[in-house]
């Protein structure tokens, strides 16, 4: 009886270990064509392999392991290994790595410099990968509470201890002050790369003292220059340029 139980235990163990390998097929999510030579990495076990010409692959894995796939022209995505993957070979779909631009109306072609600036000002959506079966990661915000949040009566009512600490702690005050300085420095760096004296000169044709006077005449705030696209700034400058020239004549 003991021998029979021992044999059954060995058979179950062999079956278990024989199943610790995932066999699947990787395909294009749009065309359904197989994706050959794609990299397959089991980041939980630090193992890797590649897909065959038919898009097939086999890699050791356990339930809960994370497999990450990457190929040229495709987004890098991850899947969490499920129990049913060992019973049948799943087909995994990898989306192409494409950038969809908003619809535009083609008009008069801008200059090369203006076109470059508009392209640099475009805000593209985040295309980083996530693990299927897991919640998408949320960015960690380490910024301190603002003065408006601290002085909110509801914050003082529901978090009296935190309110007293953030309100009167010298360390928190210094932290908020430092955060404001860093934010302003980052904003200034973005604006200085975006709104340059040479760019204003190319748009207006002004130079020397007239260029300096015109920039002062526009009197753009740092927040405006940081948040406003360059083509809108250009339109506003050209409108002010006419008034500026008339003021010089007067």
TrEMBL record:
Residues 1-18 form the signal peptide. Keywords: Carboxypeptidase, Hydrolase, Protease, Signal. The keyword Oxidoreductase does not apply. GO terms for molecular function: carboxypeptidase activity. This is Carboxypeptidase-like protein.
């Amino acid at each position: 009886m003991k021998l029979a139980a021992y044999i059954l235990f060995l058979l179950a163990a062999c079956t278990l270990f024989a199943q610790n390998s995932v066999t699947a097929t990787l395909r294009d999510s749009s065309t359904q064509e197989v994706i050959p030579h794609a990299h397959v990495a089991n980041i939980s076990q630090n193992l890797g392999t590649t897909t065959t010409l038919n898009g097939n692959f086999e890699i050791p894995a356990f339930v809960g392991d994370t497999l990450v796939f990457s190929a040229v022209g495709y987004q890098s995505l991850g899947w969490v290994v499920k129990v049913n993957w060992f019973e049948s070979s799943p087909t995994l779909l990898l989306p192409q790595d494409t950038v969809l631009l908003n619809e535009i109306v083609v008009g008069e072609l801008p200059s090369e410099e203006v076109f470059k600036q508009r392209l640099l000002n475009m805000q593209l959506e985040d295309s980083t990968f996530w693990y299927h079966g897991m919640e998408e990661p949320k960015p960690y915000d380490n910024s301190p509470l603002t003065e408006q949040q601290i002085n909110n009566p509801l914050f003082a009512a529901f978090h009296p201890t935190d309110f007293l600490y953030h309100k009167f702690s010298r360390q928190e005050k210094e932290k908020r002050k430092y955060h404001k300085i860093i934010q302003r420095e980052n904003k200034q760096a973005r604006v200085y790369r975006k709104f340059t004296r040479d760019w204003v000169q190319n748009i207006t044709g002004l130079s020397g003292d007239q260029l300096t006077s015109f920039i002062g005449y526009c009197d753009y705030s740092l927040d405006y220059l940081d948040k406003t696209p360059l083509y809108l700034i250009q339109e506003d400058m050209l409108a002010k340029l006419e008034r500026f020239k008339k003021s010089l004549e007067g």
